Amino acid sequence: MDLASRIQTVKDNIAAAAAAAGRRPEEITLCGATKVQSDDTIRAAIAAGLTVCGENRVQELTAHLAAGAYDGAREVHFIGHLQTNKVRQVVGRVALIQSVDSPHLLQAVDRQADKLGLIQDILLEVNIAGEDSKGGCSPRELYGLAQLALQSPHVRLRGLMAIPPISSAPGANRGYFAEMRQLFIDIREKMLDNQGVMDCLSMGMSADYEDAVAEGATLVRVGTALFGPRPPAVPR
Ligand SMILES: *Cc1c(COP(=O)(O)O)cnc(C)c1O
Question: With 60 as the cut, is the pLDDT of residue 144 above it?
Fold first, then answer.
C-alpha cells in the first residue's frame, strides 16, 4: 500500500471506531508521528491529506521547519520529551506542546511564551502505567500541575496526553485509556474557568488507536501505520 492509501485506511478505521462508539469522526484528529521521516515524505503525507504533524525530537522539528516540510499542514505539534534548555526552539513554533510533565518545564514554557508575547497551547502528559522508562507526571501530581498551568498566564491548558505501554494484543490498553478518560473528565470539572479549551485527549498509537477512540480519545498519534516501520532508534 502507498502512503496515500495508508493515510486513507487509518482515517477510515478512525471513522469506523468512532461510529461504533456513537461518536462523530470529526471529533477525532489524526496526528501523524513523523519522527525519522524525510522532508519529502512529510510533504507527500500532507499532500495526501494529513493535516497535523507531531514531531518528537527538537532537532528534527527545527530541520523540517527550516526546510518548509510542514507547509500546507494545519498544525505541527511537539509530542516528545522536552528538555527545559530546548524550550526556546519549540515555544511559538508549534500549535501544541503535548508533553509538558513537570512544574519546571511548565514554567520554562510560560516564561518563553511571555518573552515572545504569545500564549502557548499545551497538554499535560500523564505516565498512566507508572513506567520508569517514560516521561509524564503521575496521576497524583496531575491536579497540582493543572493548577499551576491555570496560574501561568502564557500557557493555555488544552488537555491531557498519555503514552501507555505498546499494546501487546488488541484491547490490552483499554483499561489505561479508560483511566485517562476519567482523569480528563475530573480535571476538566475542576478547571471550571478553563473548561472551554480543555478539549484534547491525546492517546492511541498504531497498535491501539481504535481502542483509544472507543475510550474517548480526541487525538491519536500514529506513525508506523502511516509511514511503515521505522529503523531502530539511534541513541540521543
Ligand atoms: C512515535 C510516536 C508515536 C507513534 O508511534 P507508532 O507506534 O509508530 O504509531 C506516538 N506518540 C509518540 C509520542 C511517539 O513518539
Answer: yes
Write b or e for each residue in 156-166: b if 16 or more Cβ atoms lie within 10 A of its Cβ, otherwise e: bbbbbbbbbee
Bigger pLDDT: 170 or 221? 221
| Binding site membership of 33 for ligand 1 (Cβ less than 6 Å) | yes
- What is the pTM for the complete model shown? 0.96
Closest CA to 226 of 54, 27, 19: 54
pLDDT at res. 179: 98
- Ligand 1 atom having least distance to the Cα of 221: 10
Tell whether ligand 1 has an atom less than 6 A from the beta carbon of residue 223.
Answer: yes
According to DSSP, residue 137 is labeled: B
Rounded Cα distance between 219 and 162, Å, is 11
Mean pLDDT of 124-152: 95
Model confidence at 56: pLDDT above 80: yes
Atom index in ligand 1 nearest the CA of residue 79 equals 13
- The span from the CA of 97 to the CA of 87, in Å, is 10
205 lines ligand 1 (CB under 6 A): yes
C-alpha cell at position 212: 483509544
